[in-house]
Amino acid sequence: MRKNYLLPLMGSLLVATTAVGQTRAVSGRVTDAGGSGLPGVTVLEKGTSNGTSTGTDGSFTLSVPAGATLVISSIGFETQSVLVGNRTNLPVTLRSNATELGEAVVVGYGSQSKADLTGSVVQLGSKEVANVALPSFEQAIQGKAAGVFIESGSGKLGQGIRVRVRGVSSISGDNQPLYVVDGIPVVSDNLSSTSAATNPISDINPNDIASISILKDAAASAIYGSRATNGVVLITTKRGQQGGTRFTVGYQTGRSEPTRKREFLNAEEYRTLLTEALQNFGSSAASIDARLTRYAAGQADYATNGVDTNWQNETFQKGRFSQYDISASGGNEKTKFFFSGQYSDNNGILVGNRYQRINTRFNLDNQATDRLKLGLNIGLSRSDNQRLPNDNAFSSPMQIVALAPITPFIDPRSGLLSGVLDPSTGQPNSTYPFYYNPLISVRNGNYLTTSYRVLGNAYAQFRLLPGLMFNSQLGTDIINQDENQFLGRVTARNTGPTNGFGFNAATTSARVVVNNFLAFDKVLNELHTLDFTLGTSYEATQIKSNSVTGSQFASDSYKTLVSAAQITAGATNQTENTLVSYFGRASYNYAGKYLAGLSARLDGSSRFGVNKRYGFFPAASAGWLISEESFLKDNAVLSMLKIRGSIGRTGNQGFANFASRALYSGTSGYVGIPGQRPLQLASPDLTWETTTQTDVGLEYGFLQGRISGEVDLYLKKTTGLALSQPVPGTSGFATLFKNVGNMENRGIELSLTTRNIEGPFNWTTSVNAARNRNRVTKLDGPPILGNFLNRAQEGQPLGVFVGPEYAGVDPANGNALYYLNTTDTNGNLNRSTTANSNEAELVPLGNPNPTWTGGLTNTFSFKGFDLTATLVGVFGNKVFDGGAQFYSTGFNNGPDNQTRDQLNRWQKPGDITNVPRAEYFGGNGIALSSQFVRNGSYGRLRTATLGYNIPVAVAQRAKLQSARVFVQGLNLLTFTDYKGWDPEVSTDYLAGNSNPTTGVTNTQGNINQGIDFYTAPQPRTYTIGVTLGF
Amino acid sequence: MKKILYQAAVAALLSTSLLTACNKKLDVDPVDNIDASTALATSADVEAAMVGAYTGIQNVDAYGGYFQLTSDLLADNGDIAFVGTFIPPNQFQRKVILRDNGFVQTMWLNAYNTVNRVNSVLGAIDRLDTPGKQARIEGEAKFVRSLLYFDLVRLFGKAWNDGNPQSNPGVPLVLTPTTVISAASQVSRNTVAEVYTQVIADLTTAENLLPGSNGFFANKYAAAALLARVYLQQGNYPAAAAAANRALQVPGGALVPSYADEFTSNNDLLGNTSEDLFAIQVTAQSGRNELNTFYSASRRGDVEIQKQLLDQFEKGDTRAKLFRTLSGVVYTTKYDVLYGNIKLLRLAEMYLTRAEANFRAGTSVGASPLSDINRIRERAGLPALTTLTLPAVLKERKLELLFEGFSLHDLKRTQGSTSPPNMPTEVIPFSSNQLVLPIPLREINANPNLVQNPGY
């Protein structure tokens, strides 16, 4: 058998050698309409895999046989075929075209030309994500793909990011898309030991990305079966191209600051309003004076001593950003390589927050024989994330705004930061300031998460027959995460008087993926194009972790747990899941006009209950390229018109391992005596969530593609939600995980690109907009309550705010009022009001999901200058200001400093205002109600980049092939009615996903949307950078 | 061509063989947890499940702190001020509880979760390998279950002496382990009387079955003590006096010489003393003393002690030494021990219960009421009384058992009243709906058979 194998290989080697003998070198330069050299353009000998890509100045060299045709393509440009003939020098000018039909689009287990595509796919190129001063690439594509909603949630670095493709389809399961890097589904699960999620996707260097394909409809995504409902993001990394080794180095540096600060009372206003609130509570003048003196570090002259601490300013810092890049790529016709390295260092806008990352990547391709191609992709990264406490922690820097402005920053009694030392006890203050000062934890503690990641795969492509390729891929994704926390003695008020506190956790997540598939394509009679893919896949993911917690350190100088005299907790955990899959795709194209596609996947998952082990996910699609019909061909106005439609089924298995099993837990030991308890009930029928998606799309181009775009209509119906359903707590269980309930997303997506001006001065506009309407159509059970007012409730969008409706302030007594909203037997709504919020009916108060999202990108270029600006918009969503119950309630919930709008409080009978009477711990108006539901719509100038490419002639004098300098701004402008820090918000401790290792399941992360709880705003960042090619 | 076909076949074979091997790979078993069907196989398994039930009552949502704090804040009329930023206790102190109060929900869920642990033990009681173990574990299980039901019915239902307990809704009685969720899981509320009957029956069984000595787990005397507490709540004074008297017979039991010894220590642990009949165990590795978190000035210092309370102590009362002043604010030091055990049933309560029950019944079971009260006073460094009045008994009880979770239940039992901190003139009588917790909103949603308490 071995012999048989080798013979044809050797034969083909001979053929290859002969072919090489007849080639000659062709060189050329590819430019755009304005004459600027285009880097990274693919130059391919037609019908072969012989190719290269252009250098930074657009030039290329390739050895081809005489009579060869070169196919020159680049994302965003029309593909050109050029007959080489006898020429050795080929100047090529590419026309830009955002919807170029010849463009190769990466799809699941292969690629297809844009023209043949019958599914809904958005593909973005490297320039959309390169050199943006953000830790993770998803943030950079915000507003660039219709129907893909991206939300950072918080201005903390390295935290989880919400990516929602066509809405949310799951209540208790995962809603993030499946991420596939170079064919290998990668781990994107949250591995954080805190309830605030981290983002493993930020381990990917954005500058390594060659393209991003987002598979949106079932036709495109069903080949990923039980993990495809939330869309699939395919990331392809850069590869080497034939030609001399080219180097690129880049450097970027910048500063950042919060996009917005909130206005709180100053010292005088605080004194006045708190005095009023205490008087209303019934406090005597003496006790008020004593209280204010206490708040003012015991300084009786608090009214005149001039202390006016702006605590908010103390928690923000000027962020610093710097990034260094180097890459080298090249190769000959047999072996090509791409190598890159990056170091980035991001000091956030919050004190103590820093994210550093170092990446290297090595991608190698080798054409071993005419039939066999081998390759390797390895990405290594290390990230250091200096994290901050969760938003709801007293030690979270943003909670500093609760402190009184009459409290001095430096306590005059100790000369130290307020709260660090009580000279009367020699210990840290335990009751002053009135809340723990979070800066004590920032200055005397840290939480460092270090993550090492190896993302690698080896592949082989073997041509069995002409047109029949066997592909084999072996991939691994290994994450080693180390979390190290230390809190010094002075943090005792927050951590307990334990002489220091230490925590360490190590997590290893190892995934192995094996893909084997056959790909076959054939053209019959030059009319029928057939394309088949058939394969199998096996995936196993094992996560192991261990952790230790300790206290009692000899001094703060000892920071590792070896010095902890008391070990208070320790654990090891292990979990695993496997997936066995069979998949296939067939596409058929008749005469380049009529398109049809079928795909399917059969997924077996260890997560599913014994009764439902395998899920089948088929999809069918069809398309008609009307513009290829004779009656439209060569039409001067309408240059392209295609309609396509698809229907298919996808699944979601993004829930906890072993959710189907009846389990006991051994974690309930009692002071050293072993104990166990029932953990969860059996759900033997538990299986994937099923989504049936219908999509109809129209692609169009006018005036040779100067105006082009797409329109998609979709309907996603999800049934059998894997739901953490509330059950009567009297059963001993709070929830049961089972497949009940339905959800629906329907929407429209529009995208339009116009090349407004072409020539030396170029102006292109890309705009996209998407409307999604989400409804929980059936729950088969009670509504599921989130942490604040969010709910999953039948007939309402997921996460809808439901609560008492605020009716303003009673002019007679200043009480907060709520509408009863009860319905009598005749169906009449009772709109009279009550001061007792318990009497008010709980009614829907707003939808945290945006109705419209979109983006507008304008690109201008002139001579060597280019300017790109992306404006994103999110409309129709509501934000729940969760901290308002403390800082916008006129001291009714305690002494927390108040927002300035509280100065409009009710003071005396007859006052007409919306702000209730201030009363210290009065409880007036503290009910969570529509009073704190705000309009969260916003528009934001997300990125603006101005660049200058130094003319090649000038650059070459400095022995450079290219040189580019640029300035960039992130979040320069925000337009919103929201009065809080930032309408792009989702507080970290509630929105986090489950952690698969520790088994900490947060099945409410999808319900708790749009909550602001002392959440840091996004940074506004300015950077300047340079990129040199040589 | 043949060769090529052969190669294609090899490739296909390769793929399929990879797959068949994979099907077995779907059988992945959990490592951290075990299958419920094998969990209670042996005698030791059932014993471990019983230990798991103690961990349930150790939880902060039960006797780790919330039950006691809820009772004391709801009844408070200005003795203390809760100044923390936690909303649920604030609502308790204001006596304006919103139906989505977080503590109310977690107290309910944890209590029933623990009841299910107990029921699972009782369902597997025949697996214990000796009659002795069987009796002990059944006794412990019934003790823990009645402890929870007694507090649930007192917090979520009207008081025994408020209207008709035979018709007032109490809490649902679930007495069998849950293995599936079905229509039968949508239980209704049993009456207050039915819950009390179950509690008394369980405790009577427990007292009979439990050994006299059982480490820090429940023993015969703890069951008698809890029974005394139940009878006292019902106003069944002869039974209360008798049960308290039985509890006081615990071998080796004695009040510790100084009140402070019961609550303070010179390290961060506080063990059981000769005075303790039953205490929640806490160590650095197990459990959390949430009373320490809320009350202690070395922690959150959320509870400020008001002059009104301090003025109630007689001069020389050593119990008044368990306070300290920081920046002009007074805090209790009763819970300053970071990992201190939480005392649930101690002899001092039994002396006070026996005294009150005897006093009210006009009996002297075990001892005269006066001698019992004077025993408490003597330990507190106070002169002996010569005559006794009911207010004197109740005052002694209050100051002795301060912050131990008795306030609300004693207020209801004695038909007292309270008022919110910001409205000292407003009178909230013991029968007010405001002093009964709402059935948690999530529970009402999940179970249509549950009737909400009036006022919510």
Describe the structure.
The complex is a heterodimer of chains A (1030) and B (456). Chain A is globular and about 100 Å long. In chain A, 8% of the residues lie in helices and 47% in strands. Chain A has a 22-stranded antiparallel barrel. Chain A has a five-stranded mixed β-sheet with strand order 10-15-16-13-14. Among the domains of chain A are: 2-96, Carboxypeptidase-like, regulatory domain (Immunoglobulin-like), CATH 2.60.40; 137-242 and 332-395 and 436-804 and 847-853 and 978-1012, Maltoporin, Chain A (Beta Barrel). Residues 1-21 of chain A have low confidence and may be disordered. In chain A, strand 19 (335-347) and strand 20 (354-367) form a beta hairpin. The longest helix of chain A has 20 residues, at 2-21. Chain A is mostly beta strands and 1030 residues long. Chain B is mainly alpha-helical. Chain B has one domain (40-180, 191-446): Serine Threonine Protein Phosphatase 5, Tetratricopeptide repeat (Alpha Horseshoe). In chain B, the strands form five sheets. A two-stranded antiparallel sheet of chain B has the order 2-5. Chain B has a two-stranded parallel ribbon with strand order 3-8. A two-stranded antiparallel ribbon of chain B has the order 4-9. In chain B, helix 6 (102-123) packs antiparallel against helix 7. The longest helix of chain B has 26 residues, at 131-156. Classes of the chains: A mainly beta (1030), B mainly alpha (456). At the A-B interface, helix 1, strand 24, strand 26, strand 27 and strand 28 of A face helix 1, strand 1, helix 2, helix 3 and helix 5 of B.
